[in-house]
Amino acid sequence: MELKNLAYYVDVSAFEHKALFEDCEYVFDFLKKLAVYIKQTLKPKILGVVMPGATVGNNVYVGKGSVVQPGAWIHGPAIIGENCEIRHGAYVGANTVTGDNVIIGHASEVGNAVFLNHARAPHFAFVGHSILGNNVNLGAGTKLSNLKVTGKEIEIEGIKTGLIKLGAIIGDNSSLGCNTVTQPATFIGKDVYSYPLSLLRGFIPSETIVKVRQQQENSSFDTQR
């Protein structure tokens, strides 16, 4: 499993907030720095459009060309890049940072999360304590679970993470099918594709297709009577 090589998963060279990842021993260590980084970096300002019916907290930056649609709520603290869409019914919780051209869509909830440029969670997604790489797309209903049912610290291959919550690290250009669920501490490389209804866990290497096989049987009414 790649735990120390951030470049295996994402290219942050074009990400405005790449300083967040400096001096991180493990790829998940940015989560430990995220709140402090936002506190030191955030200069609240609305340069985009907040439509009537949307709610934006005081500690929020919204970049040029970005639109916050009616019914969306950016609680913050949060930094939203340029040309982003925060769509109707979306909830953007604390400690969220996005790059440019990001979509957080209808009924999606995000928090303690980083979206690199062109990342998309367009419909009914949950993204917590996670990072979405460049051009990542989450199919409708995707959930990145971040908390063990025991509530205990997450360990990976005997390594204590120091984290109670750790969702998914999803590499550039990966796409998860509708209603995919990732278990806590799932690491997905670049250019990975998962079938709909997949349950993912552990480490999935780059350039992989994850296939879920299920058997469908169609019976006529007559055979069931």
From TrEMBL:
Superkingdom classification of source: Bacteria
A GO MF term: acyltransferase activity
InterPro entries assigned: GlmU-like, GMPPB_C, Trimer_LpxA-like_sf
Residue ranges occupied by any Mannose-1-phosphate guanyltransferase C-terminal domain in the UniProt entry: 74-157
Keywords per UniProt: Acyltransferase, Transferase
SUPFAM superfamilies: Trimeric LpxA-like enzymes
Entries under Pfam families matching the protein: GMPPB_C
Name the record gives this protein: Mannose-1-phosphate guanyltransferase C-terminal domain-containing protein
Species whose genome carries this gene: Candidatus Buchananbacteria bacterium RIFCSPHIGHO2_02_FULL_56_16
Phylogenetic placement of the source organism: Bacteria, Candidatus Buchananiibacteriota
